[in-house]
Structure formats: C-alpha cells, structure tokens
Amino acid sequence: MAEFSWLPRSPLEHVLVVGAYGARDVAPGISLTEIRNFDLIQIMARRGKGAELANAAKARFGMAAPEVPKAVSASDVTLIWSGPDQFLVLSKGGKHAMDILSQAFSQFASLSDQSHARALISVSGMKACAMLAKLSSLDLHPASFPIGAAAATSIDHTSVNLWRGSDLPDGQAVFNLLVFATFAESLWRTMLDAAAEYGVDIGYSEELG
Amino acid sequence: MRIVCPFCGERELGEFTYLGDAKPVRPSAGGSEHDVFDYLYLRDNVAGAMSEHWYHGGGCRAWLKITRNTLTHEISSVEPAAGVGAAKVGG
C-alpha cells in the first residue's frame, strides 16, 4: 500500500519563482502575488431559498451577500458574487471554514469547499490594468470596474473569478483572481508573458490582501 | 457579437455556448411516438427571429433564453432560462 502525503501544496509551486521577471531596466510595473492557505467556500441557494440564505448570510457575516457582481469585505471575510444566488466566502484561519459554515447554511444552501481547488493570485501595480487588458475582454478602467466590482469571466479560455480590491496606499490598483487549481500554472505563464514588458515582482503571501 | 447576460452584463461571444432551439417542449410520459420523434429530431430552420438556448459557461454558468435574428444576428431579448438561479431573477 502506497503511503500518501496529504499536506496541502500550492498549485503554483512548480512555476512560481520569487523575485524579478521580465524587463529589468524599469521599476516593476506589476506585482504578482500568490495568496496561500485560505479558506474558500462556495455557497449556492437551494431552489426557492434565496431569501432565507440572504438573511442567514447577513446574520453570519454582518453584511449582505452580494446579489450583483460585486465583492464585499469585512475585517475577517470577503464575499464574492459568483453567479445568480451564489457566492464565494474567502477567509483565513478557519473562522469561516466548511464545518462551521455548513451548520449555518445547510438548511438553505448547498456548500462546497473550494479551499484547495483554487489558486488565488493578486495582481497589482501601476501596469496591472494594462496587463490584464491584454488578457481580458472586460473593461477594467476604474470608471466601469471600480473597487469592489467582481466578475465571473474567462481569461485565456480559463474561467476565473475576478474582483478589484482596495487600492494600495500609493494608489496602485489591485485585482484578485481565483482560478481552478489545475489551470493555475497555465494562467500564471500567460500572465507572466503579458506582464514581462512592464517588469514583474513575483512573490507569495500567507496574508489575504 | 456580444451578448448582454442578465447577470453579468455585456460579454463577448467566446464566453457563451450555443445549445439550439428553445421552442421544443418535452412530450409527457404518455406522448405518442410521433411527438417524441418530433421533439428529439425535427428542428425548424428559421430565417428570422428565433428563440434559442445559450450557456454562459465562461462566466456565471447560467442558461439563457435568447431571441436572435438568424439573418442579422441581432439579439432582441435575453432572459434567464427557466429554473436559473435558485429563487428569483431581476428582483
């Protein structure tokens, strides 16, 4: 009988090389940061239970779950719209993990633990918008995709959940991308190609942005 | 071609998959062989406005019912297909 190791590992560990990438004669225009070790739960309302789920979500998180393509954040959790009557719960440290949320929501909703099924990539920097514009058909200008805007869309034929986080203190835009773990390598390489001309600073973090 | 998803907004065609005619209705369990054959195999070749099912697989993964003119590709209506979302559509 083979011995298995069930230690969680990053889906990007074979391609993520910390440090500089691409153009070196300029200050990096893009930061690509993989966020590791998060809790991610998909919650979908059962048929006819949308109102009950909305009430339960408000009681649980202290804010309404988004009913339109937006992401809303409290101090310890982010709720990301992912489709009609469904949203993702992104958090850290187990406070909103599967065993806890399933008790709160299983009457009204189907829950699915996606913690190890997705990679979370944060794209920031003065050229973040320009880089993503090469890959996405969405208009990511702040006028049409402001802070808190979210989208379920495709980048390079790969489904992603994309949302805009708060700007960094120096005004740089932040985009967060959730991608299926097995597609993460492919998307990572695609983004490196798109970002290389701007100079990239690659890293990973254990902290949600 | 762009399609305005009622959930996501305007998106490029590449995010959607075409299923086909939205008109055929599955016959009841006691339906005649003729009705079942018609439902399974016979399709109208419409030149003009046609009701179609599309799937927003590259986005919110909702099924949509779209009225499209097959001559001009003009889309005159997009609505969620029956049963999309657990509870409600558009409030």
Please characterize this protein's 3D structure.
- The complex is a heterodimer of chains A (209) and B (91).
- Chain A folds into two domains: 19-36 and 116-205, Probable tRNA modification gtpase trme, domain 1 (Gyrase A, domain 2), CATH 3.30.1360.120; 39-113, Heterotetrameric sarcosine oxidase (Alpha-Beta Plaits, 2-Layer Sandwich), CATH 3.30.70.1520.
- Helices cover 21% and strands 34% of the residues of chain A.
- Chain A contains four helices and twelve strands, in the order E-E-E-H-E-E-E-H-E-E-H-E-E-E-H-E.
- Chain A has helices at residues 50-61, 98-105, 128-135, 181-195, and strands at 19-21, 30-35, 39-45, 71-73, 77-83, 86-91, 109-113, 118-124, 150-155, 158-165, 174-180, 200-205.
- Chain A is globular, with a radius of gyration of 18 Å.
- Chain B contains one helix and six strands.
- In chain B, the strands form two sheets. Chain B has a four-stranded antiparallel beta sheet, with no helix packed on it.
- The relative contact order of chain B is 0.25.
- Mean pLDDT of chain B is 90; it is low at 86-91.
- The chains are: A alpha+beta (209), B mainly beta (91).
- Chain B: One of its GO terms (molecular function) is sarcosine oxidase activity.
- Chain B: Pfam families: SoxD.
